[in-house]
Amino acid sequence: MARKSPLEVYKMLPGDNCGECGEETCMAFASKLIDRDAKIEDCPRLKGKKKEKLIEYLTPPVREVKIGDRTIGGEEVIYRHELTYFNPTAYFVAISDNDPSLEERARKVKSFVMERFKTDLKFDGIAIRNKSGDPEIFKEAVEKVMEIEMPMILCSFNPEVIERALEVSSQKRPLIYGAIDENLEEMCALATNYECPLAVISSDLRKLWELSTIATGSGVPSIVLDPVTDSLNMRGTLNRIVEIRHQAIEKRADPFRWPILGVPAASWLVEGNGYWEEAVTAAILQNRFVDAMILNTIETWAILPLLTLRQNIYTDPRFPARVEPGVREIGSPNDESPVLLTTNFALTYYAVEGDVEGKLDCYIIVADTEGLAVEPSIAGGKLRASDVAEIIKENKLEERVKHKKLIIPGAAARMRGDLEDSTGWEVLVGPKDSSGIVDFVEKHWKK
Ligand code: SF4
Predict the structure, then answer these.
(1) Are 230 and 268 in contact (CB under 8 A)?
(2) Atom 4, ligand 1: which residue's CA is nearest?
């Protein structure tokens, strides 16, 4: 699909350059709208037909839906390399309303965190299942989960059960899960009256299309599509998901322009299945456009690969992950501590930092290579000796250490001469892999 253009957006803005939106010009505001760093409402002068036209232009092929304060969907492209993905898949953990350890499990979900490359990887919410069949027990479970303040999915096919829970929780905007052929009318009425999103469920895409059409036609504010996760037939499951996303993005087929929900937790329903099957099912769905998932497991070993996969898929390919250039102090360096050089590609920097932290007190010069790793930045002329000299000067490194020695990555060996000329420092060519830095310093630094 064609990329959205700031110029097209600019044409729909008032063109007054008044600055009331916080930007100096309408053109700057247009660029921010394209990048989703500003909202249309930030321009108070935009009204009427022009505003409607701009809303239509900027609404992504897959509409955004809010569950609590978590946004899902909103994607513009099928494949990430065509632009980027915007809203990472939301992970909801299933909890049964009659589980005696409900509160303990909910707190575990809330407090779960894994740090990877300085980012906290977490769950996004809780899906409460009405296993008891009792509306009152379900309502009480929802109230308990509300106390931990996470987005919620209310799981029951019984409208009476859902209504009892919505009476106490609708202000939190939970996802109602969900509507099937048999309860569609009642669920649509609940979603409309309580202004909550509604999941429509069917493994038959023609039926799913019909459910979505009827739901939006009856006033449901937002929809989530569940084409049913069948862990005994993942080929069929994936085919349905791919078809929905193609219809949404390439054909702009309105009933399918909503986020997709997958339920890896369903894999536990198959006798003999467990953590392994759920993790594999979830990974398959994560790779193919699913915007939200209901999971059963909170075991770290089973969930970690999935969290890592999500983080990688939702890294913006237009901008290599990068850190601020400059000089970092690792540990408690003094005026005799080694000075290392690396680039500001986040994965490179954190690998170096991780390999020396706790083992070596040192300084790391982080060169601005526009987020490129060592070898590509040298090949592309982004790691420049003059920039390194500038960082040394700006950060007064010559006052902070009494030596003038710099350890550079082995992959940057060919820069040695240039660096010595530009900085006036002695340059030591270190190991190719940062895991060898500590050994290298022990063997070579004092000599
Ligand atoms: S508030 Fe509207 S008219 Fe004024 S500069 Fe921003 S976009 Fe332009």
Answers:
(1) no
(2) 18
